[in-house]
Amino acid sequence: xxxxxxxxxxxxxxxxxxxxxxxxxxxxxxxxxxxxxxxxxxxxxxxxxxxxxxxxxxxxxxxxxxxxxxxxxxxxxxxxxxxxxxxxxxxxxxxxxxxxxxxxxxxxxxxxxxxxxxxxxxxxxxxxxxxxxxxxxxxxxxxxxxxxxxxxxxxxxxxxxxxxxxxxxxxxxxxxxxxxxxxxxxxxxxxxxxxxxxxxxxxxxxxxxxxxxxxxxxxxxxxxxxxxxxxxxxxxxxxxxxxxxxxxxxxxxxxxxxx
Length: 259
What we know:
Blueprint: H1 16-32, H2 34-39, E1 47-51, E2 57-61, H3 63-74, E3 81-91, E4 94-104, E5 111-113, E6 117-122, E7 124-127, E8 130-133, H4 137-153, H5 157-160, H6 167-180, H7 187-202, H8 207-228, H9 230-258
C-alpha cells in the first residue's frame, strides 16, 4: 500500500448511479456462478492419474473428497444435501444406476435438484486371468452417477475442463488448499480479523494513523486471505478506502473552516 497521501487511492470511486450501472451485470453473473466457483477447484491431493484400455488417460477424483466438499458447502449429508437412486438396469454384464442429487440452497434454504445421471460398472472383473463377480459394482455405479450429478454444480469442474493438464494450475491449486488448511485462514479467523481491523480503523484520526494500521501486517494478511476468500479481502480493503475518504473529507472541511 505504501505511505498514505491525499492523492493515494485504495479503491476507485464513482457516482453511485454510474457504479451501480457498471456493476449490475457483473453482480448478476457472480450470483449465478456462486456455487460453481466455490466447488470448481480440485485438491490435487485428492486426485490420481489413470489409464484405460486404448491408451485413454485421465484424472481420478477421490469420491470421499467430493463428499467432504459438499458437506463443507451445504452441511452434513442427509441434512444439507443428499442423493437418491431413481432407476437401475443390467445390460452387457454391466450394472447401470440412475441417480440425482438434492441440496439446500445456502442463501434461501430452497431444496434443489440436479438433473439425473447414469453411472455404470462392469459386474465381472478379470483378475490374474480369472473372471469373478465384482461385489463393489453397485457401489461404484452409484458413485459414478453421483459424481456426474455433482459436476453439474461445478464440483471438480477444473479437472473436466482440462486445467489439470497445466502444471502451473496444479501448483496454484496445491497452494490454495494449503492456505485453506491454515487455521488463520478459516472463516472464523477471517471474521475475527475483519472485526479487529474495523475496531482499529475506528480509532484512526489521520492518514498517519491509517498507514500505521496497514503496516501492522494487514497487507500481508490480506494477500493470504485473498487466496481462499477474495470477498473478505475486498471487504477489508474497502474498510480502508472508506476510512481514508472519511479522513480526507474531514480534513477538507476543517481546512475550509480555518480559512
